[in-house]
Queue: 2 jobs
Job 1
Amino acid sequence: MKGELCAEGIPLKTLARKYGTPLYVYSAGAFSSRFQELKKGLSSLDHLICFAVKANSNLAILKHLAKEGAGMDLVSGGELYRALEAGVSPKKIVFSGVGKSADEMAVALRAGIHSFNVESSSELVLLDRVARKLKKKAPVAIRFNPDVDPKTHPHISTGLKQNKFGIEKSEVLAIAGSIQMLRQIEFKGISIHIGSQLTSLAPLDQAYERTRELIEKLNRILPEPLSFVDLGGGLGITYKDEKPPEASAYCKLILKHFGPKNRTAPPLRVLIEPGRSIAGNSGVLVSQVLHRKENAGKDFLIVDAAMNDLMRPALYDGFHDILPLEQKLNRGKKTKIDVVGPVCESTDCLAGDRRLSNELKSGDLIALMSAGAYGFSMANNYNSRPKPAEILVKNKNARVIRKREIYADLIRGERF
Ligand SMILES: *Cc1c(COP(=O)(O)O)cnc(C)c1O
């Protein structure tokens, strides 16, 4: 439709009228093309693309990506439950995270997942013990902390040595030296993940180089050479005016270090764990303007979406572009305005000082762009607000993939 925002040809306004607001809308085609770009870039390698479930954990999204050939990267037993419910093959599942419990380990071992990304010696010892009880072997990649600065927001940086993630080089080498004492552990790979929303390849280049050096050292110590490397996620997207690397350039960098032409390392299977780069720009959050008001010379647009629906702005200054669904509301005079939600917190500001049309008023619809990753998956019920519905548009067909919550959902499980 001309002059209005659409998802795969369906006007968002039509969806908002039918399903109400706030409303998450995703494009299946967008998910597919982002995934296929990565798949194409790595086609010359034995590879596995594990979608980071925490970015968007809706069952329909997981199932859609699994059909395209994706595996999954998990950070909790709850995510394992989701991935298995969505029909993902356990052989394509990797389990990351600094704090796996014995119960989570047991469920994953019984399911027969591809590997655990282990983040401490203590975790390795526990995993060995749980595996022995179940008479299973535990395939493991040690998460290496390469100590590089990803130059991203400090709250989403994970690869510096002061971060809680991963294990430093000397300790990884020490673990390798004594790995035979942990009889159930199969030390098969190294994993890294240096941060999220990376907009330059330089820190990855450095991290890959250190990882390759470490793998060569380990192969001299270990009884059997490592069989895979997991390079994590982190590729950035455009929220505002960032110019993140293209998927093809990102894959070329991977090939430079781990590709078939690189003869210094033995052939390794390469895993990646993209979340944001697949999901971020594949979805939006549609919201309705409730009120417009002015306080001491400052203008506010109060909308029906809030920090509980989309937490990124409050949590780490996340930026989401705001577009009126009807383009005619993009013309004319604009003023700087704060777009805020109804939640009783001053941090419930979805967008500060945005230049938006003076015409925007009660009842008008807007889209918070780039909300497909870390949007609904972070949504919560603060202020006893039911979570929004989620819609997936695929081949001109819009389908509810999560019902809007009702008040009864809010008190389920409570007793008095
Ligand atoms: C969050 C996370 C990812 C995904 O990161 P994106 O920036 O969304 O690509 C991948 N791997 C691990 C271990 C993570 O914690």
Job 2
Amino acid sequence: MASSTTSEAAAASGYGASGPRSAPPVRVDLRSDTLTRPTAAMRQAVLEAEVGDDVYAEDPTTNALEARVAELLGHEAGLFTPSGSLANVLGVRLLVEPGEELLCDARAHVVRAELGAHAVTSGVTTRTWDAPRGLLDDDAVDRVVAMMTPDAGPHLVSTAAVAVEDTHNFGGGTVQPLAALHRLHEQTSAAGVALHLDGARLWNAAVALGGEHAGGWQGVVQEVGGMVATASVCLSKGLGAPVGSVLVSSAENIARARTWRKRMGAGMRQTGLLAAAGLHALDHHVERLADDHARARRLAQAAAAARPGCTDPAAVDTNIVVLDVDDARALVLAAAERGVALSALGPRTARLVTHLDVDDEGADLAAAVLAELLGR
Ligand SMILES: *Cc1c(COP(=O)(O)O)cnc(C)c1O
């Protein structure tokens, strides 16, 4: 009994098991863009990777990946990490001393999905702001700035850093407007408060804004990178690499982060096998994110047509669609019976995410299933 309850709970939450044992096979998996599997070409790149011992800093492929990502964001150095959470933990640790605070959005990954790591391992305290869709617009920036208490003296907690998530995951893949980021950057630098970017899906934000930017997606990445002291980016989400994130910052900061990574048990050896997948992803899988965004928009349109108000297709900036429904768990289970895997993020909130392993055929099936289930 216990195990079937557990697997149903996992299916309904979207994390863990793919569904109850009796469910038919998953035909399209929209639970997360972390579910991508390496393509044949990526596996070939892994096979051919030159490797060395990365704890000795002698893995040429890892060194190349770190340099490449640092350059893309306009930073001096990069550090490969096994997860985005660790890249965030190391980045925030560089900026915030024990007992100081990090300000972040109330639904930020750093404060909702990293299991308290910043508090447990770094002694960081947090205060949060609320923003619809996690959007950092001018109004939100004003509220963040009003919350800051840098150098608060011996009685109050001092604000050392502000974390920005771009795109915002639980907000629904929200792209942060560049103008508001500039405004935040001006105010935080004037106050001596540092910025950390949780750019797990910065690539999606860059592709979404790249069409209107003189420098294309690379220009967006440079511009955002130029505003932050530390940034983490994921290779294992929409980019389709099996493992890994990169933290970027100054050379001095990254040297400190390298020591902390080892101290936390994540000094790794022949990581070139993983870094090769990341380099391949950067070469081949960034621009195609636009296809994921178009499919997500289509799914939102199908859902909104079947049940007006459950989502706003115009607010789907990238590859994530959040649905407001009466019973998210029931929707997830009914969709699973039809071969479509979704997640329930809360009792009334379902989420679907498009990615490298979702093609037009999969999107068609998901759209038909959403139309059927939401049209009831
Ligand atoms: C996925 C994600 C991360 C990192 O997650 P890991 O599972 O630790 O790699 C960080 N921030 C956001 C916003 C994410 O979506």
